[in-house]
Each structure stands twice: as C-alpha cells, then as structure tokens.
C-alpha cells in the first residue's frame, strides 16, 4: 500500500528530523507507530497522508510515486487514506450525521445515495442515539467515534489514527481498539500512532518505533 525508501525530512535549513526511513505498510496490515515525544511521529503521519513531502528518498502510495503527483492527482489518492486527527476536527455547526457525511458531500454525492450508509456507520461506532447531536454536547469519546466514522465513510484502503485513545478512559480505549480491529479484519490497513503501552500490549501487532529520527521495526 505504502512504501518508504531511504526517506529523510528536514524543515527549512535545519537538521533532518527524520532520516533513512525504509518500510512498508502492507495491504490489510495492522501496526502501531510509537516513540517518545518529539521523535517525529506527527511528521511521519503527515507524509503518510501526503500532507508533507520528504526532503529526500522515495515514497510510493498505492502504486504512485509521491514526487510525481500533481495537485489534481492528490484528492483521488487521499480519498483512499482515512485520517483520525488527535483534535477530532469536527465542524461545530454540523450534527454527527452531517460531519460524518461531509466527505461524500464534498465529492458531490447526492444524499439519497449515501444516507443509509452514513446512518449505519454511525450506529456501528455506537452513536446511533447521537445522530443529530452537535459536537458541543458530545463527550470526548463520542467526538472520537464520530471522527473515526467520518474517516471510514469513504471506505479507505488505509486508516491513520493519531493518538485515538489519548482523551478517553480505559474501557472506551478498549472499545475503540475493537473498532479498529474489526475494520482491519474487513480489509483496511491500520496505523495507530500512540504512547499507550497498555493499548499496544492488547494486540499482537507490528510496531514501528521512532527514536531520534530513525525507525526500528518489530514484526
């Protein structure tokens, strides 16, 4: 799905913050991305999401060389990569239903084409009773699940989740993890960036560990 070959990243004229990264995100795989604060996890996620291009090296996403992608090519590739941001990024004036449906509306789809799919997905993440609620009345865990549903509504090939359990209690963290595992079993590759060792110990999964800009991989 995604391949990094000898990738390095620096900001402006500063030193490299990531260097010599070579790894693959395989189809239908499940992995945790971890490491100490400041190790570069967010920068790596941004490159995976095509929001940031490397200073050197080769990144191939879904068979396409990122360096050769034009601006008009990016939306079609990004639609195949779902992202759950740490700060949720829900729109405050939209209901849960409207937030989850937003990626499909942006693509120009008619509501009659997607309404039932959106409702079913919202129920799947456990928010059926919050369908018409605004973000202001949702708890942190409910916002997180709404953000997950929005990331999934376009049926991505890859899901990237940035600290998805960072703002929830342990029981809800386990529930979110089960959602990610179910998604993975349905065929989506999953990358979860986290500091939560307890969460990682619940799953026998590949670990990508960043330290001082370099990556170690434990399969």
Automatic annotation (TrEMBL):
Alphabetically ordered keywords of this record: ATP-binding, Cell cycle, Cell division, Cell membrane, Membrane, Nucleotide-binding
Record has Secreted as a keyword: no
Localization annotation: Cell inner membrane; Cell membrane
Known partners and oligomeric status: Homodimer. Forms a membrane-associated complex with FtsX.
Similarity comment: Belongs to the ABC transporter superfamily.
Task performed by this protein: Part of the ABC transporter FtsEX involved in cellular division. Important for assembly or stability of the septal ring.
Protein name: Cell division ATP-binding protein FtsE
Protein's gene: ftsE
């Amino acid at each position: 799905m995604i391949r990094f070959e000898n990738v390095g990243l620096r900001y402006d004229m500063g030193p490299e913050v990531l260097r010599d990264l070579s790894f693959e995100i395989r189809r239908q795989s499940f992995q945790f991305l971890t490491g100490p604060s400041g190790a570069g996890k967010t920068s790596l996620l941004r490159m995976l999401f095509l929001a940031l291009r490397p200073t050197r090296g080769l990144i191939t996403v879904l068979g396409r060389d990122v360096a050769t992608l034009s601006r008009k090519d990016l939306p079609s590739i990004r639609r195949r990569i779902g992202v759950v941001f740490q700060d949720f990024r829900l729109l405050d004036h939209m209901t849960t239903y409207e937030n989850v449906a937003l990626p499909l509306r942006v693509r120009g789809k008619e509501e009659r084409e997607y309404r039932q799919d959106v409702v079913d997905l919202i129920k799947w993440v456990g928010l059926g009773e919050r369908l018409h609620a605004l973000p202001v009345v949702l708890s942190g865990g409910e916002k997180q699940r709404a953000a997950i549903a929005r990331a999934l509504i376009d049926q991505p090939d890859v899901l990237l989740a940035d600290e998805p359990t960072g703002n929830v209690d342990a029981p809800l963290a386990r529930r979110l993890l089960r959602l990610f595992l179910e998604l993975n079993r349905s065929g989506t590759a999953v990358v979860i960036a986290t500091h939560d060792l307890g969460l990682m110990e619940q799953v026998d999964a590949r670990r990508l560990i960043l330290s001082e800009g370099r990556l170690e991989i434990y399969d």
